[in-house]
Amino acid sequence: MAHVAVQSPNPAIAHTHATGKGKSMNHESPRPGPNLVRQRVGPTLRSMRMRRKLSLSDLAQSAAISPSHLSRIERGLTVPSYDVLDNIASALGSDLTSLRTKEKSARVVDDELRDLFVRLQLDDGAQQELLRLSHETRQALADVMHRVVGQERQDV
To answer: Which tens digits make up the pLDDT trace of 102-136?
Structure first.
């Protein structure tokens, strides 16, 4: 597989295209926008499903979508339509307002984590991987990282 660097008109965005068998994949650093929304809502939905001890198939059936579609949503590969998200929320015993509140909380945690990642000079691949964790896990990570960074300042 060949990797080709592509110059972007926006210097803040670095593109690398991996080509092979006629496919092209675009890899970008995390930034606000649809990708991060997908990464926040998907793990949140998965966490809610797991807490309720529902299988992927059971939740998908209750929400009137295919298990593969739900899986793609949970993994942040697609953004659900308003209606699909409403169906999933209802099937989880929740509503869109509650999901929105959780998403806002996740956004605050993600912003904190990004600041910590920059301070610790964590590479983009590791950042993306960590931002795919569930909201609860990202919150715990942020709490620990704040303590570690605070401890390093006291040791200096």
So the answer is: 888 888 998 999 999 998 899 999 998 888 787 78
Q: What is the CA radius of gyration of the chain?
A: 18
Assign domain 34-155 one CATH number from 1.10.10.10, 1.10.260.40, 3.30.1360.120, 1.10.150.130: 1.10.260.40
Question: By the 8 A CB rule, do 86 and 99 touch?
Answer: no
Q: Which residues of 33-42 are buried (b: 16+ CB within 10 A; e: fewer)?
A: eebbebbbbb
Going from N- to C-terminal start, the domains of the chain cover 1-30, 34-155
Length of the chain: 156
Q: What does each C-alpha distance from 40 to 30, 145, 149 come to in angstroms?
A: 12, 19, 24
Q: Kindly give, in sequence order, each residue whose CB lies less than 8 Å from that of residue 80, ignoring residues fewer than 6 positions away.
A: 41, 73, 88
This prediction's pTM: 0.59
Q: Count of alpha carbons within 13 Å of 41, Cβ hemisphere only?
A: 27
Token digits for 150? Answer: 């605070």
